[in-house]
Amino acid sequence: MATQHPTIGINRLPHLMVLEPEITKLVIGFPGDGKTSSQKTIKKIHGDEFIYVYLDCPSVVVQDMGMTMPVPEEKTLEWWVNETIFKIKQAKANGQKLCIMLDEVLKASKMVKLLLTRLMLERTLGAETLPEGSVIYGTSNDPRMGIGDTMEQHLGNRLCLYYLRKVTVDEYLEYKGADIDPVLHGLLSTEASDCLVDTTKDSYKDNAMSINFNQPPRQSVTPRSLCAVNKVFKNRVKYGEDLQATIAGLCGVHFASLSEAFVNVADKVYSFDEVMADPKGVDLPENPTISIIQTSALAIRVETEEEWTKCWDYVERLDKTNKEIGNLFKLRMMKDKKQLFLSDGRAKAWVRDNRDLII
Predict the structure, then answer these.
(1) What is the pLDDT of residues 162-197, one digit of tens each?
(2) Among 48, 51, 211, 310, which is most exposed with the fewest C-beta within 10 angstroms?
(3) Which element (helix H / strand E) includes 102?
């Protein structure tokens, strides 16, 4: 019986790419799950330790005098070979290393792959060898997905292949933190909690939201599309009657239909400051969807022990009318802000009394 390949989580990717830098890594994962943004995270962690080079491999064109590469931040094309050789020399002169990311490398043309193979395996470009400790890694989608990725066996055998586990809703919410809209947060925590499942598994193969290569092409929910739709949720008033069409255009029809009930009551939610001003007296919503959004707004904003005490005062009242939503809020706080959560004695008592929910 075939053994399933072990996977890594998206939060581990930046750390693993710089370990044993002499080993070139290739990260295989679903589209839109954050592979490309990993270099930004590495830069945030390591700063000037590296000079950073990014290559969008499918868009590279082999020309008579070299290869051009797009530089998204500058909105320009650079001669990739010449520019990278310059950066290698610059790194050596400054005592730095390079961090080279070959994005969607398995979608590159055959000629471009040949040009990159020596760089990946021998860490040499032209006559220049990379400084010791330099990092090279590639990203792509699984060739079995049938979206243009191909890998020769002899190449894969010389790399360290990492298979990226599908990003979960919890990981996405952790990534967005306080930047997420409360309405979207509430939707993802409840009705759309399965929108990022791994559809290669039999139990999720019929999921109507997550990206699915066994079904006809459609708009799907990915962390990338959620980042886009988060902006739409924040500016939903501006979209007017076109809001649902826009959400469907980013994340698919099923996700849009689930979001409608949340969007329709969004203006009935009290602000964080209003709840903090009178947690024991502010009106409790009768509509459960409003309660979900309200508790999401609290979970996103609460930062201090004083605020958390007031949140607990509010949710204690909510427990009397809808204990399930109250428990969902507490579980979310345990996941996202555990130290703050346990700073209130009532929270510690709730943990003791509800171990079955936590497990």
Answers:
(1) 999 999 999 999 889 889 999 999 999 999 999 999
(2) 48
(3) strand 97-103
